[in-house]
Amino acid sequence: MDQDAFRISKRPEPVEVWVHPEGRVLGAIFLQSQSDYHFGAETPREVLDGPAPFLVVQCEGPEPIRFYNKRSIVRMEYTAAEVPSEAEPVNIGCRLSMMDGALLVGTIREYLSPSHSRLYDYLNLAEQRFIELQLGEGQACLVNKAYIVKATPA
């Protein structure tokens, strides 16, 4: 039997991950070439908000493959790919004060209904463990809501 017939095609995506209590980890996560939810490749956000409790991170060094508990991931930075859409996203500027002392400033770009387009509404979306913050110049940061101390509009 051909074992490759059962293999799911994935590509590495370079990321910087801040893990509690380990700190900053440089590596890559693996994304499917086709998302289960939209046209195009899977996004880092889909992986972090997915049901699997652990995330595979490929790093250099003595432990090249690591499995991190998603609950211990404070944030993840990566280069964001532009996803084409006919809808216009809501832009919410904000500052996030994190438990590790970091202050993240950026813009949340989400497709929200007008009645739920405030920062407060977005932070309280129960189905999302991570929020995506656009930092500028194509950089995005997925932030674990459990590690946010304070959020203020920018």
Query: How are the strands ordered across the major sheet?
Result: 2-1-5-9-8
Alpha plus pi helix count: 2
Distance between the termini: 57 Å
Can you tell me the overall shape? globular
Which stretches of 5+ consecutive residues score pLDDT under 50?
A: none
Q: Largest sheet, if any? A: 5 strands, antiparallel
Structural class: mainly beta
Structural commentary:
The chain has 154 residues and is mostly beta strands. The protein is built from 2 helices and 10 strands; from the N terminus they run ββαβββββαβββ.
Features:
SH3 type barrels, five-stranded antiparallel sheet
List the helices and strands and how they pair.
Elements: E1 10-19, E2 23-32, H1 44-48, E3 54-58, E4 65-69, E5 73-79, E6 90-98, E7 103-110, H2 119-123, E8 130-136, E9 139-144, E10 148-153
Antiparallel strand pairs: 1-2, 1-5, 3-4, 5-9, 6-7, 6-10, 8-9
Brief write-up:
The protein is about 5% helix and about 45% strand. The chain is built from 2 helices and 10 strands. β3 (about 55-60) and β4 (about 65-70) form a beta hairpin.
